[in-house]
Design a protein that fits this description.
120 residues; alpha+beta; SH3 type barrels; 5-stranded antiparallel sheet; 2 helices; 26% strand; signal; membrane; transmembrane helix; Lipoprotein; transmembrane
């Protein structure tokens, strides 16, 4: 009985964690990327191909071969990122939600396991 509850809670937690990890990513093939999922006014994190530090920016629009935004909501410094230098784009808000979901899921699984051990 103990093993089956532990197994079920582990499977449920892993399924929850896998389904909640949602980020917007783009492949390194520039021809396939149209960046239509980017929404103006949202903060994104860009990973560069050349290995420089990840860059956080507030997306504004796309102009030809460049992604244009600002350094943040309070910092109006213009940021121009060439599409050819983008390895991945991640939605920062989705990453926060996924992180919170992982913590809540782990706490729920621990509560189930502890509760089932005490019930026996």
């Amino acid at each position: 009985m103990k093993a089956s509850v532990l197994l079920k809670s582990s499977l449920l937690t892993s399924l929850f964690v896998i389904s909640s990890c949602a980020t917007t990513k783009y492949s390194e093939d520039i021809a396939q990327n149209n960046y239509s999922n980017l929404q103006a006014g949202k903060i994104y994190i860009v990973t560069h191909k050349d290995g420089t530090k990840k860059q956080k920016f507030l997306f504004r629009n796309i102009d030809g071969d460049n992604i244009i935004g600002t350094a943040g909501k309070k910092d109006s410094t213009e940021v121009i990122i060439p599409k050819s230098n983008v390895a991945a784009v991640k939605d920062r808000s989705n990453a926060r939600v996924a992180g919170g979901a992982v913590v809540i899921g782990a706490a729920a699984a621990a509560a189930i396991v502890v509760g089932s051990l005490r019930a026996d």
